[in-house]
Amino acid sequence: MSFVPVLPDCHFPIQNLPYGIFSTKIDAKCRIGVAIGEFVLDLQAIKHLFNGPIMKLKQHVFEEETLNKFMSLGHEAWLETRQTIQSILSKEQSVLRDNADLQKKCLIPQKEVTMHLPAAIGDYTDFYSSREHATNVGTMFRGKENALLPNWLHLPVGYHGRASSVVVSGTPVRRPVGQTRMVDDKPPTFGPCKLLDFELEMAFFVGPGNAQGEPIPVAKAHEHIFGMVIMNDWSARDIQKWEYVPLGPFLAKNFCTTISPWIVTMEALRPFLVSNPVQDPQPLPYLRHSDPYSLNVNVEVAIKGEEMKKEVVISKSNMKYLYWTAKQQLAHHTVTGCNARPGDLMASGTISGPTPDSYGSMLELSWRGSKPIQLEPGIERKFLKDGDEVIMKAHAQGDGYVIGFGDCVGKVLPSINFP
User: Fold this and answer.
1) What tens digit of pLDDT does each residue of 21-80 get?
2) How many Cα atoms occupy the beta-carbon half-sphere of 1 within 13 Å?
3) One of 60, 75, 116, 133 is an active-site residue; which one?
4) Within 10 Å of residue 285's Cβ, how many Cβ atoms?
5) Quick one: which of 55, 57, 194, 171 has its CA closest to 117?
6) Burial bucket for residue 329 (CB in 10 Å: 0-12, 13-18, 19+)
7) Does the model's pTM come out above 0.85?
8) Distances (CA, A) of 27 to 108, 168, 206
9) Which end of the chain is more exposed for a tag (fewer CB within 10 A), N or C?
10) How far apart are CA 239 and CA 94, in angstroms?
């Protein structure tokens, strides 16, 4: 238990302690914080309290404006830091509990902070790891018999995304413009995207990287995974349909990707690890691992249109439905010798479950626009309209506590007019 008040349904108990980057009106410098209850613990203000065998020599990382250097220290440093923070916040520990002056400096109400991207993201990779999602999309475009392409059950399919347009929750997203060809026997046209969509995903940040030419083995991959965030990988479906053959998504995905502000560590998520899905056929040896690394984390999406009084949840799913694990994704990504670096971001791909109410995109929920989604009486959507706010949430339910990630929110703004 923490001496900081934490309500039973609060997403930031002492069992969580996610990391983020914040600033305040009083101090505009970005710095590292940890969420506890309704407060942010400023690690820069208490860096002198980290006196463990590893962190007593690394206190300077808490002066950084991103988490990259802390991520690079590795899982033993992360564990020691977590244990120190839990001790500092404990009801039984007096070092902060009985120091009112220090509390005033280091415990800041969350309502008074501005959250920023938690890391300088050098590279971003998006996987395609939900069998249900891949099957749904394949069925729409190729038919049920050819829904999954021949490679899908053998490797974690992925593509390199655009890191420069990853933004933190709360940042508006501008409707993209581009080429589309809505009628197959007519030339393409140029204009605003008409089929704007969200994709419900989770993503992990890489901690220590690997030297170029030296793959990360799947048995050691967990030592390189720092923690997870919610991700909305916004998608322009009509732009994508025209451009993706033969090289895949490009402008349809590069305009914006939104992530939640708090990184929930893998140590906090350890109690929610569950058995991995049965993979048939068995993957090649470099992808095999028997230790559980799937996660029982609930995820959901809500929409609030400008004409609506409140948000409406339109999808509820779970990370446990993903076919490929984060360990397999990282091992596959680096098997060529590709060098991952601290702060690299790797996403799960759209998370869809087995039932229609658990699909993770409007493409699936409206089944390519043929089944409008009812939000309120008289209000429906096939795809997103200008002014729509998309709100994604995720949580894991513990025994008497909840582990949450902070919301992942973005509002759609109209496109920029072109002559």
Assistant:
1) 999 999 999 999 999 999 999 999 999 999 999 999 999 999 999 999 999 999 999 999
2) 7
3) 133
4) 7
5) 171
6) buried
7) yes
8) 12, 19, 29
9) C
10) 58
